[in-house]
Amino acid sequence: MDARSSKRPARLGSFRAKFILVVGGAVLFDLLVSGGLALWNVQRLSRDATLEVGQGLEAASQEYIRTYADSTAAQVSLLLRQVHNDVGTLAGVLQAQIDDPARNSDVGAAIARTSPGSVSLSYDQKTNWSQNAPGSASVVSVWGYLLGQDHQPRPDVQSDIQTSAVLDLVAPSLLQRGASKLQMYFIGSKERPIFRTAPYTDQAQTFDRLYPGHNEANFWDFFFPGLYESWQGWAKDMKTRPVADDITQTAPYTDAITGKLIVSFFQPLWTADRKDVAGTAGADITLDQLAQTVENVKVAQSGFGFLAMSDGNVVAINSTGEKTLGLRSASDASGAGVTGLERSLKGSAQPAIAKLALDREQGIQHLMLQQDGNEVPYIVIVKRLPATNLWVSGPVRQEAMSLGVVVPEREIEASLYAAQAKISEATNRIVLYQILAILLSLLVVTIAVFAASKRITGGISALADAAKRIQAKDYSVRVAISSKDEVGEAGEAFNRMAEQISYHTENLEQLVEERTAQIEDAKEEISTLNAQLERENRRLGTELAVAERIQLMVLPLHQELEEFQALEIAAYMRPAEEVGGDYYDVLKNGNRLKIGIGDVTGHGLESGVLMLMVQSVARALQEAGNTDAVKFLTDLNSALFKNIVRTKIDKHLTLAFLDYDGKEMILSGQHEEVVIVRANGDVERIDTMDLGMPIGLEADISAFIKTREIAFATGDLILLHTDGVTEAANDGGELFGIERLCREARRLKDQSAEKVVSGIVAALMRFVGSQKIYDDITLLAVRHR
């Protein structure tokens, strides 16, 4: 290309002038328009984002508060419903006895013969009452006006003492299960109000200390005036009940026996003809149990909850909330009988709280509360609980407690303010950067257009001439462009293209042969890699087979399972992969037998290794004579935790053990439910969640390990299993489930342990059908011969 042509000034009609005008103008216009649109869009996006984020965060925060209030209200209602169910169960037993006088008398006589301490009373001359001695499952107190001249209970009272002893058979089990209860009791009719309570306490002595004069007045009139008469009204017309339920709840009051604030739940007992009241079954829970659910409410940083009666009396709130709401606590000590708690919203030092309505749900409320001389905005939501029958003093009335959640608005809206500030800051930064970018782009484009025009036009002309010669099949043409920009690169690329065209035209056949040779070499390399892959697969398969073999070798032998004469043991294990993560073992040391079952998280080689660790450590502890079930699990966890840390295996396992010495069967550790099929066909399921925690998560789990003794008589059958049994699914996605497992166990209860296991496994495989099994399956049956 002629160097002089590149130095000639651009004429108005030349390609260079047109290039500068068209390209430069278009680029400048595009920069100005796109930059302006970008700035406008950024500002609009900032406004829209601020609005949307604000509305979304406000709606989300309020929905969160509503959901939190609903959830907490459900927890409180569940606790109350559990207590109702337990009281109803006790009342059902006692009512059944009342309805069958002959059986009632027989049961009382039988208990008097077998447990004389339950019905044998001693008279206290100083205080004029009789009470049975400690050592019984329950305490029964008989007041002086129910005693004869010989200081012995009247015959009709003595009959009630004997028949009420059925409480000893029922109450201990109810106290251990269901909702946590302080005590359960039976109170006789107004004519014979004997008081029997489980567990045993110094009942009458405590009443004498806290309630002087109670022994000279009728029990019902002294402690619960108006309650008995309300029930008598119900007996005449059940429609007079404020709420269609027999359960009657008291307002919180101070318990005579424990000194704690409690709530009592009564269910009246009716005479056999249902025309009068025969007494009541009852249970007490401490106010702490209600308060704990409410006091654990924590919304944002300082939000809290409260539980209040419909009259505004707050029965549960934490100390922070009590101060914020301006509540004053006081005990209502007026009159005889139980002493209540008075801490009313109506007496609040905060005017907005004193006016707070509890008779209906009003959704989100915004209140101004005084704090350190300033008014602070708060959000309050009130949820009403289901209505109940309530006794305070006098007739029973309807009561619907309310759960409130209170949280400062500034904490709820803190994220909104922060988000808006961040959006504004980001918007300003983007606008500034956008303006600087536009100005810089304008300068660079102007310089670049003028500089590029000088080189591009000359180079383009040379490339056009060379292209025409290539078109004429003159492959010897080359372009001489000395610039190093894109035009120069295009010239170099054109020259290489022309050279390659010339080369390929002259050497096409040779190139085909070379490419064919390259393809053959590639095939040979692929074949070599396939052979290496096949050898590696065989090696890995061999390793997995060895691991599987080791895992199977450490399982108990058939003759080991038959060594314990009193028990018949059978087991089945099927890994989901070559190496499974399930564990079971039967360890014998002298006359003691330890049966273990566990499930490592996941399956595969790592899970199998952890299972082998469990087996080895358990065997070592058993051989070392570790007979304490809690210490056994604690030491096993400590050893495994250290191995898990060392090997960096991100696994843990559920693990439970049965310890049997020929007399007692002790269960410890956390795993799946233990299923027991009694000789008479009854099925029991024991939840192990409270007996331990997963092994390998913490270095010390001694505080979490508990034991439970299991009755195990001749003909009884115990089933241990992993979740691979109950969670096996069929083609429709339905799980095998614990209920189906229990039905199969009951069906096979009279078979040998081996047939029980094989029968359940066969039923499981029929249920699963062709569906793939994704988890390890382990089943262990232990029958008492």
Automatic annotation (TrEMBL):
Domain HAMP: 454-506
Alphabetical UniProt keywords: Coiled coil, Hydrolase, Membrane, Transmembrane, Transmembrane helix
UniProt-listed InterPro entries: Bact_Sigma-Reg, HAMP_dom, PPM-type-like_dom_sf, PPM-type_phosphatase-like_dom
Transmembrane segments: 20-40, 430-452
SMART domains xref list: HAMP (SM00304), PP2C_SIG (SM00331)
Coiled coil spans: 505-550
Any Pfam family the entry gives: SpoIIE
Protein name (database record): HAMP domain-containing protein
Organism: Rhizobium anhuiense
